[in-house]
Amino acid sequence: MRTMGKWLWALWLVLLPAWAAAEDGHELWLRYRPLQGQAMVQLQAGARSIVVPAQPGSPTLRAAVAELQRGITAMAGREPVLATRIAQGALVLATPGSAPPGVELRWDELGREGWLLRSTRLQGRPVTLIAANSEAGLLYGSFAWLRAAQTGADLSRLEQRSVPKVGLRLLNHWDNLDRSVERGYAGASIWDWWKLPDLLDPRYVDYARANASLGINGTVLNNVNAKAESLTAPFLAKAAALADVFRPYGIRVYLSARFSAPVELGGLKTADPLDPAVRAWWRAKAAEIYERIPDFGGFLVKANSEGQPGPQDYGRHHADGANMLAEALAPHGGVVMWRAFVYAPDAKDRAAQAFAEFQPLDGKFAPNVIVQVKNGPIDFQPREPFHPLFGAMPKTPLALELQITKEYLGFSTHLVHLGPLFEEVLQADTGHGGTVARVVDGRLHGHRLTAIAGVANIGTDRNWSGSQFDQANWYAFGRLAWDPDLPAAAVARDWVAQTFTARPAARDAIARLMLASREAVVDYMTPLGLHHLMGTGHHHGPAPWVDNLERADWNPVYFHRAGRDGIGFDRSATGSNAVAQYAPSVARRFGDPRTTPPELLLWFHHLPWDHAMPSGRTLWAELVARYDRGVATVADMRRRWAALEPDIDAARHAEVAAYLAVQEGEARWWRDACIAYFQAVSGLPLPPGVRPPAQPLEAYKAMRFPFAPGRGG
Ligand code: GCV
Predict the structure, then answer these.
(1) Which of 236, 342, 492, 585 could form a disulfide with 511 if both were Cys (CB 3.0 to 4.6 A apart)?
(2) Closest residue (by CA) to atom 7 of ligand 1?
(3) β-pairing, 159-162 with 168-172?
């Protein structure tokens, strides 16, 4: 018995480290695991001490130093000392006011938030300089140095400089005050409104660290389908408590504002933006907010869209509404982010609506208004062309709104990496003299107010985002918001190195899998420019047959227009002519099926089923081939993930494998249901050798999902 006890004890000691090391993704990309080999040697040599100015410094500087200490201690196995004097192997944090003698650099090139990492010699000793003009810049630089260490950079030869190209880099939470999250697939809202402001969940600090590590500098706390209550005193106290937690991390708090709040909260008879009493109400509300949150960022507004109130209710236009709020915020330095996501029930073509309403208002917005435009003209589909407003409103700052949560891309169960989607829209040539990135970063039209927003995928799930790989979409958003020209592939590799493994072969294999996943989802859901084929309400799963919703432009049949004669939405000159909203060179390219990229063909054209595709197939055969390719890519992703088992900790490997199995099944479901439906409407036989759908069309139509997640608002 005694011997057995000894054995059990020995087994426990052997297994303990493995259990202790079990990973669940909670640490995100700030895991700071011990480095190996030469990397460890370099780290230990290059991060012996952290040199900071003699004064204790602000909370932001303290956050930077704490993060460096935490990261270095975990990665190097020993804690760096805090010092005020230069010694060999020091990390020297320097601003123009605090830089030790001998630091020579072009401070003006670092801007307000940029940073420089430089391996150099100071007072004859080898050191690493982390330099910035502000303490926020030092915080970003510290995170950049930690990223360099985690991703295997040579720490003894660092020379990196980065300045954000976009001023406001924001998360938009679609979180409701009851803690449900509209289109959220990662549990409840992390804002525990009930317990705030008294109880500050430690996760708020980790949230701030994670965002600061990417350069995200603002967060809109509540859903754009807003409740007026978020502007009442009790909720402002809660928002203020969060703002206090985030401030050291350079993150400002914003709120979604309900346009009719003066009626609902103020007892006024109207919310007409030209009514003096309404204007006075908003001015007083802004003053009240700034009293509690001196660095409050401003309002995000969804108006006259999907049933939300707005200025059009009073015969006014969007600029009237936005400018009224801008007037209230201007004395305090706040901004209004006014969304362009609008579409009227009677519009001839939903894709053309936002342009029709907003473009004529160019030049009519107050200087502290930024119009926030979704990446494409419909609604975060697996693939859309870039929104035609980009480049078409030169006198108005335009923010890009991306969706990080995957409302239309398989929720958090499908592995779909969004870096390539974000990159595709940012690098799209608007035809107005620059890419979408150049419009958004303000350079094309000389705007200083610039912003990128991402609809957050964060919730109370232990892994924050609902799945391990969905964290990468948050990460990619943040990195590309800082620098819209970063290659998505490089960002994906960084994330893998920080999150799973920095060993090059495994890192690259995982990144390749991620990068292939976006085209896969396009193929198995909506190939060749198809869009909006998903199920009603929940938006999960295929339902191209739906044609009975009250508004025409909510029905999938409105978008694909498939019949005996062919398939696709004619947005060329022979159809809705929405293509004319693009700059002439782009309109010409998209206006002709011969020059439209196959990826967008059916977005712009209605074509016969026997239309000849560049591949030599008919359109029908190409459509089926793309559905098959999508399923095959997911099957391949599964195989590749299985082969990575030795490189990944068991818990996370198993979780991802389980999700990939779900994804393969659902990719087949999409493929089978869509092919069954399009075959029925076209009356065509399946191309030779193609596997028939597993079930008859009626079986797919009969499926119901009453408890699908994420529809909170
Ligand atoms: C917040 C789509 C989504 C809605 C969302 C809306 C928007 O319609 O399905 O849930 O509402 O976009 O962006 O305002």
Answers:
(1) 492
(2) 341
(3) unpaired
Rounded CA gap, 266 and 282, in Å? 10
Residues 6+ apart with CB under 8 A from 531: 378, 381, 382, 383, 384, 559, 560, 603
What distance in Å separates the CA atoms of residue 546 and residue 555, rounded to the nearest whole number? Answer: 6
| CA pair distance 692, 227, nearest whole angstrom | 48
State which of 305, 379, 400, 402 you would mutate to test the pocket of ligand 1, scoring each by most atoms of that ligand within 8 A of its C-beta.
379
171 SS3 class: strand
pLDDT given for residue 57 in this prediction: 77
Atom of ligand 1 nearest to the CA of 182: 10
Terminal-residue alpha carbon distance, the chain: 61
Q: Provide the annotated active-site residues.
A: 306, 379, 407
In this prediction, residues 571-600 reach a mean pLDDT of 98
561 C-beta neighbours (distance < 10 Å), count? 17
Q: With residue 510 as reference, give the H or E element that holds it.
A: helix 504-525
d(CA 529, CA 619): 12
From CA 255, how far away is CA 481, in angstroms rounded? 20
Given its phi and psi angles, is residue 19 left (phi above 0), alpha (psi -120 to 50 degrees) or beta?
Answer: alpha
Query: Hey, what are 625's tokens?
Result: 């081939």
pLDDT in tens, 361-379: 999 999 999 999 999 999 9
List, as one string, the DSSP characters of 334-385.
-EEEEE-----TT-S-GGGHHHHHHGGGTT-S-TTEEEEEESSSSSS-SS-P
| Residue closest to 520 by CA, chosen among 343, 666, 648 | 666
Taking CA atoms only, the protein residue closest to ligand 1 atom 11 is 225
Residues in the chain: 713
Q: What is d(CA 312, CA 492) in angstroms, rounded to the nearest whole number?
A: 43
Distance of CA 202 to the CA centre of its chain: 23
Instruction: Using the mean position of ligand 1's atoms as its centre, give its distance from the Cα of residue 36 in Å.
Output: 46
Cα-based torsion angle of the residue sequence 273, 277, 278, 280 in order, rounded to the nearest 10 degrees = 110
- Chain Cα centroid distance, residue 609: 36
Burial class of residue 496 (count of CB atoms within 10 Å of its CB; 0-12, 13-18, 19+): buried
Contact 473, 465 (CB under 8 A): yes
Q: Is the CB of 174 under 6 A from ligand 1?
A: yes
User: How far is Cα 340 from Cα 362, in angstroms, rounded to an integer?
Assistant: 12
Pocket test for ligand 1, best of 173, 183, 384 (most atoms within 8 A of CB): 183
Is 410 exposed, middle or buried (CB count within 10 Å of its CB: 0-12, 13-18, 19+)? buried
Say if CB 604 and CB 590 are below 8 A apart.
yes
Element at 61 (helix H, strand E):
helix 59-76
For residue 588, report the distance from its CA to the centre of ligand 1, in Å.
31
Indicate the helix (H) or strand (E) that contains 482: helix 470-482
For ligand 1, what atom is nearest to the CA of residue 711?
Answer: 10
Using one digit for the tens of pLDDT, what is the confidence trace for 212-267?
999 999 999 999 999 999 999 999 999 999 999 999 999 999 999 999 999 999 99
Match 């339902």 to its residue by tokens: 543
For 115, phi then psi, to 5°, come to -145, 165
Q: In this predicted structure, what is the pLDDT of residue 21?
A: 55
Residues 6+ apart with CB under 8 A from 304: 310, 311, 312, 313, 318, 342
